[in-house]
Automatic annotation (TrEMBL):
Superkingdom of source: Bacteria
Organism: Saccharopolyspora oryzae
Pfam families reported for this sequence: 4HBT (PF03061)
Alphabetized UniProt keyword annotations: Hydrolase
Occurrences of domain Thioesterase (ranges): 60-137
InterPro entries the UniProt entry points to: HotDog_dom_sf (IPR029069), PAAI_dom (IPR003736), Thioestr_dom (IPR006683)
Signal sequence segment: none
SUPFAM superfamilies xref list: Thioesterase/thiol ester dehydrase-isomerase
Name this protein carries in UniProt: PaaI family thioesterase
Length: 151
């Protein structure tokens, strides 16, 4: 799909396109980390990735930035699903709480983001990252600035 065609999609349509097409020719953080879009709904996103040794911190567990990136992606993409075509957003604030370490052994981490409030100028969302056993790795909240054309 061409950039102009993508720009004409609503946020929900765009996220569903990403989920269905899994574009590998478009550089993105999702491509870099191997993020998969598992569920896409209005106001809710579930994504996952498989850990790998490249994700290690000096202690040998998954670096906290991986969980933070998953949370930022899941929550902000959930916000994106609520926006009409031509309206974008940027993260204003991200607050992450880390609960336990994750292993770099190829296990799957899953992040869910859900919109709490969608306004004209800001939106808020919450998220969590779980390991394969359903154990909580991290949870977060975000505030996104809504950017309307001409603003």
């Amino acid at each position: 799909m061409l950039p102009a065609e993508l720009a004409a999609l609503s946020g929900l349509e765009l996220m569903r396109w990403v989920q269905a097409e899994r574009p590998t020719d478009i550089p993105s953080i999702g491509r870099l980390l191997g993020i998969r879009f598992d569920e896409v709904e209005h106001g809710r996103i579930v994504l996952s990735l498989d850990t790998r040794p490249d994700f290690a911190n000096p202690l040998g567990t998954v670096h906290g930035g991986i969980a933070a990136t998953m949370l930022d992606s899941a929550m902000s993409c959930a916000v994106h699903t609520t926006l009409p075509a031509g309206v974008s957003y940027t993260t204003l604030e991200l607050k992450v709480n880390y609960i336990r370490a994750a292993k770099t052994d190829g296990s799957t981490l899953t992040a869910e983001g859900t919109v709490i409030h969608g306004g004209r100028s800001t939106a808020t969302a919450e998220g969590k990252v779980l390991d394969e056993r359903g154990k909580l790795i991290a949870h977060a909240t975000t505030t996104c600035l809504i950017l309307t054309p001409g603003s």
